[in-house]
């Protein structure tokens, strides 16, 4: 339902988003994950028709976001990070007003239905300024759902909420993923792992990985750094491992050794275990460092930063993204 191919957004000579490609399918929640300033909000603004791309293509529900912007907007529900609300209106009146702008029929029935879906029926006639931040986020989500869109794009929807509100909103987003194509932007790693069926990780305006959380764990475990812990002199063990052909670097970390493999395409653990045991050490622990989503994210962004050329354009892109929009 969302198809992005070689999409870029330039501000002069600066790339906020640089040649990214990914897709998001119906019936699942796709997480768009990256640090602040990575390019998430810029991408979402392109997908919702607020910002034109500089190059590449993006299709939402089968429509081109640039050539068929109005068709895209009819089929997309967008919840921005900072929800624009008329605070002196009641929640229901606000939705009725939006429904009139959209030319919806049976606006009252739709407003009541979406308020019920987001759990705000009891506060339908409360003025928005009297609602908590979590409830205002739900009003914004109800507005995004009002026209029954095929695609929902949610930009950092849990920012500023208390823990209970975060849990409630995550549960609601996961439920919405059954009936809609949901793209969910966040920089909170645990949130992405709990809510999303697929992850697209972006850093410095470029996609560094995509797949399910399980797929990313399996992929990175094959070529990630490995933690080794054994009984014996740590320095001697480090020297042993550093001399192996499968090892690029071995560093002491407390009572353990962090091994960087020589090839990202190979899993060095078998060779490491054979060498350690063969040298008479008692092996206590041997595991890839990227065992959870946080480790995966740190490892991937570390790799992308070390691989990226240190150009002024790359630095400016990060600054531009952070100053233009809060991603």
Secondary-structure topology with pairs:
Elements: E1 2-11, E2 14-24, E3 29-33, H1 40-47, E4 55-60, E5 63-64, H2 69-75, E6 76-79, H3 91-102, H4 107-117, H5 133-145, E7 151-155, H6 163-176, E8 181-186, H7 189-195, E9 198-203, E10 206-211, H8 213-223, E11 226-231, H9 234-242, E12 247-253, E13 256-261, H10 269-278, E14 282-288, H11 293-307, H12 312-324
Parallel strand pairs: 3-8, 3-9, 6-7, 7-8
Antiparallel strand pairs: 1-2, 1-4, 4-5, 9-10, 11-13, 11-14, 12-13
Written account of the structure:
This protein has 2 domains: 2-211, Rossmann fold; 225-288, Alpha-Beta Plaits (2-Layer Sandwich). 40% of the residues lie in helices and 27% in strands. The protein has 12 helices and 14 strands. The chain has a 6-stranded mixed beta sheet, with helices on both faces. Strands 2-1-4-5 form a 4-stranded antiparallel beta sheet. The protein is elongated and about 75 Å long.
Key words describing this protein structure:
327 residues; Rossmann fold; 2 domains; 40% helix; disordered C terminus
In DSSP terms (H or I, runs of 4 or more residues), the helix count works out at 12
Q: Strand-residue fraction?
A: 25-35%
> In percent, how helical is the residue content?
25-40%
Which CATH class of the largest domain? Alpha Beta
The overall number of domains is 2
* Terminal residue distance: 23 Å
Please describe the biggest sheet, giving its number of strands, its sense, and whether it closes into a barrel.
Answer: 6 strands, mixed
The order of strands across the largest sheet is 6-7-8-3-9-10
Uncertain segments: 309-327
Q: Count all strands and give the number.
A: 14
Radius of gyration from the alpha-carbon trace, in angstroms = 24 Å
Average pLDDT confidence is 86
CATH fold description of the largest domain: Rossmann fold
- Going by CATH, the homologous superfamily of the largest domain would be P-loop containing nucleotide triphosphate hydrolases
- Structural class per helix/strand content? alpha/beta
H and E string: EEEHEEHEHHHEHEHEEHEHEEHEHH
Instruction: Please state the overall shape, judged from the principal axes of the Cα atoms.
Output: elongated
- The second-level CATH architecture of the largest domain is 3-Layer(aba) Sandwich
């Amino acid at each position: 339902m969302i198809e992005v191919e070689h999409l870029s957004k330039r501000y002069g000579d600066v790339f906020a988003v640089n040649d990214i490609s990914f897709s998001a399918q119906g019936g699942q929640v796709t997480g768009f994950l990256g640090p602040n300033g990575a390019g998430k909000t810029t991408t979402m603004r392109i997908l919702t028709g607020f910002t034109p791309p500089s190059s590449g293509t993006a299709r939402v529900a089968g429509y081109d976001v640039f050539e068929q912007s109005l068709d895209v907007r009819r089929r997309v529900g967008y919840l921005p990070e900072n929800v624009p609300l008329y605070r002196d209106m009641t929640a229901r009146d606000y939705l009725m007003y939006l429904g009139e702008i959209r030319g919806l029929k049976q606006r009252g029935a739709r407003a009541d239905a979406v308020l019920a879906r987001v759990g705000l029926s009891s506060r339908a006639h409360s003025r928005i300024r009297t609602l908590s931040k979590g409830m205002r986020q739900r009003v914004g989500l109800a507005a995004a759902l009002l026209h029954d869109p095929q695609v929902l794009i949610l930009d950092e929807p849990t920012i500023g909420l208390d823990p209970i509100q975060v849990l409630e909103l995550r549960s609601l987003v996961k439920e919405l993923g059954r009936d809609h194509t949901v793209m969910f932007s966040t920089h909170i790693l645990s949130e992405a792992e709990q809510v999303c069926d697929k992850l697209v990780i972006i850093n410095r305006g470029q996609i560094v990985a995509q797949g399910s959380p399980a797929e990313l764990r399996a992929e990175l475990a094959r070529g990630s750094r490995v933690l080794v812990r054994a009984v014996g002199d740590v320095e001697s063990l480090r020297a042993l491992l550093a001399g192996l052909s499968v090892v690029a670097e071995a560093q002491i970390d407390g009572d353990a050794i962090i091994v960087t493999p020589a090839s990202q395409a190979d899993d060095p653990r078998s060779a490491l275990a054979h060498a350690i045991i063969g040298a008479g050490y008692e092996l206590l622990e041997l595991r890839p460092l990227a065992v959870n989503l946080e480790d995966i994210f740190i490892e991937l962004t570390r790799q992308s930063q070390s691989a990226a050329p240190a150009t002024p354009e790359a630095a400016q892109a990060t600054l531009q993204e952070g100053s233009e929009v809060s991603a």
